[in-house]
Amino acid sequence: xxxxxxxxxxxxxxxxxxxxxxxxxxxxxxxxxxxxxxxxxxxxxxxxxxxxxxxxxxxxxxxxxxxxxxxxxxxxxxxxxxxxxxxxxxxxxxxxxxxxxxxxxxxxxxxxxxxxxxxxxxxxxxxxxxxxxxxxxxxxxxxxxxxxxxxxxxxxxxxxxxxxxxx
Length: 167
Known about the structure:
Elements: E1 2-6, H1 12-27, H2 37-43, H3 46-53, E2 58-65, E3 68-78, E4 83-91, H4 100-114, E5 119-125, H5 129-137, E6 141-147, E7 159-166
Parallel strand pairs: 4-5
Antiparallel strand pairs: 1-2, 2-3, 3-4, 5-7, 6-7
């Protein structure tokens, strides 16, 4: 059974190990020398996790399937704009294609609606065709594009799309 459980600061090592396992197979080709360790350690450090957990308008979860941790989900709510940002959704590649992404989108939308959001939005790399197709199939539309300012990402992979969906 699919479930989400809140991430706490005590979960830091579990989170870091999870992301060291699931991020590189999907994204290491984007980074110069295929070295994504800098990114993983910056985004999943104790300091960054502490900052993200201190955001009172955000929820951060482990994604679990039958009690096995297989990914993460982070939602950031903006009540003033009645919107929710799907900030992070990473799922172990071994569990993709099983319909879990669709279930997680529903979980995300349910959480957004519970926060009175009328819109959910996200940012996706313009070269991640599988992800873009998934989001489009889920009802998201591209509303803007921009270029990432990460020096260590290979230039051809710096393009991003902002996508939104009305709830």
